[in-house]
Amino acid sequence: MSAFNQTFLLPQCAARSVGPANQLFIQLIQALITAHCTIPQPDIWPIDYGPTACDGETFDFVVVGAGSAGCVVANRLSENPKWKVLLVEGGGDPPFESEVPAMFAANQRTEYDWQFYAESNTACKALNGSCFWPRGKCLGGSSAINLMLYVRGNVRDYDRWAEMGNEGWDYESVLPFFRKSENNHFSQFVYEHNRRYHSDAGLLNVDFYGESPFAKTYIDAGIEDGYKFISDINADEYIGYTKVQGTCYQGRRQSSAKAFLATAKNRTNLHVLKYGLVQKVLLNKKNQAYGIEYVCNGKVIKAYAKREVIMSAGAIMSPVVLMLSGIGPKKDLKRQKIPLKCDLPVGKHLLDHIYTLIFFQFDPTPSDPLAAYDNTYNLAIHNTGGLTNVGVSTLSAFVNTDKTETLPNIQLMYFWFTKKSPNIPAYIRTRQFNYDIAKKLTDINENNDVGAILVSLLHPNSTGSIQLNSSSINDKPKIYPNYFSVPSDLKTMIKAIRHQVSYTISKSYSAKHGKFIMLPLKECSGFVYDTDEYWKCYITYMAATEYHPVGTCKMGPKSDRESVVDERLRVHGVQGLRVIDASIMPYITSGNTNAPTIMIGEKGAAMVIEDNLPFSSSSTSSSSSSTS
């Protein structure tokens, strides 16, 4: 018996073989094992600088957070070989599951997730009363564990930013930075508008996922209602159904880390420190940032920045680190006995896309019980199949509850589970539905297909906040999203839900006997179905975060009392400190926020370079020796 047979204990068949058949199956298994080991590609990541880091080491730039924006910033700054760049990340390399698009949810509630929770009495009751907020804790940050949808928003989003006093952030000004990152593999998009909207020369691979046979049911219902299919939501049309582009290529995730760190890992001036938990930004008596303090392998270490410290830790951790450094609301810092350095509304103006989930049942579709094995084989050998896409959620619709409007206020995302789908239990575990709802969905799926629609509010008027829980970086912050605190948000959501439920009378849904699933919601049983009171109650159960927090270090002029950074992303009242991530958004964009965050990384990095190029390496704003 071969060593391979001994290791893997291949079953002995009753039928005897003269050799070729057994060898063929052994070769197949060997090919799958080899492919399994090469999918994660651990050698693509930069080596960990942590073991060789020295306390008191000096860099030109220190970047905090290797997420969607931080990876971009580190890459662009280290393009200048004269600049020494330190990138500090709280986690390590992404896991195997991060590479496989369909396994995006498997990374939640693991060591690769910060596992935050928000407090809300207007949402999440179906999730055992807890609003779970996953955030990536590894190279790539949330771009390494998210749904990978590449949605930029629209012209009005960025023109609004500029109108709020942020010069240079209008649509025409930010569009070149979207193109700078992008390597779009759908050539028609690149050339049909003479490259106005797209590029095939950037580092971030953007492509389409595989096709879904179930998308037609949803699309046909929308077309029957008067909407059209849009080929490119990232161009000049914003209302309709669309097959969303994704940060994926050849069946693999394209995180910000893969695009911007893996391609720069051999630069000797770029140092990527993993598992470093940044406690605070170091500030001198003149409120000048000159470095950071972080914990790595149980040791407290200082790293100094001759030019700038750049916070790219995301909409939750960037404000947390700033507040722990003494930059934040005076009253909140006083409560935690943190010495005040600069009184700014850090952690305020929290915005998020809140969605409500609705379910429908349809006639069962024939399914293949061996599909999971086919998908695994095709992923490993051909980079194709069901594991290389994220289901019907690659189909999205952007609509407005007032059909006369030309810009969307609702985004719809779609899922489909065939009869007895093994994905239903997995989806229930991911969402943490309570027992009654989980049982209802599982029972219906025994004999029917189940469709799910995420009805997402694109332009919330309700704002929340992030507050410190203590003066320690180890204690997770308090998150108060204040969902639906502004009544107009709830009215828009109810109107959008009613509209989607009305599709049960469409020809498309009727052909499959589609009907709305009435979930067992105890508190809602006393309300008449389809009244405003019923839907208000329903929403408190089925509404949850779409994982798009922004705005907690809001960009705006000093005259804007809610702002933390100026239009060049410099923290008001502090020298040598910028924030470059989703937290600077003065208002949330019309869609998934990963693409806009990468754009912010590109534009922010360009500003840093522009502001520092006139100076030599020695003529810096501060140094560790003169300011500590």
CATH homologous superfamily identity of the largest domain: Glucose Oxidase, domain 3
Do you know the CATH architecture of the largest domain? Answer: 2-Layer Sandwich
Distance between the termini: 68 Å
Helix content: 25-40%
Return the structural class. Answer: alpha/beta
Q: Based on Cα principal axes, name the global outline.
A: globular
Query: How many DSSP H or I helices?
Result: 19
- Reported by name, the CATH topology of the largest domain is Glucose Oxidase, domain 3
- How many extended strands? 26
Beta-strand percentage range: 15-25%
Average of per-residue pLDDT values:
92
Low-confidence stretches: 1-6, 616-628
Largest sheet: 8 strands, mixed
Number of domains: 2
CATH class placement of the largest domain: Alpha Beta
Q: From the alpha-carbon coordinates, what is the Rg to the nearest angstrom?
A: 25 Å
Short characterization:
The chain has 19 helices and 26 strands. The strands form 7 sheets. Strands 7, 8, 18, 19, 20, 21, 24 and 25 form an 8-stranded mixed β-sheet that branches. Strands 1, 2, 12, 13, 14, 15 and 26 form a 7-stranded mixed β-sheet that branches. A 3-stranded mixed β-sheet has the order 5-6-9. By secondary structure, the chain is α/β, with parallel strands linked by helices.
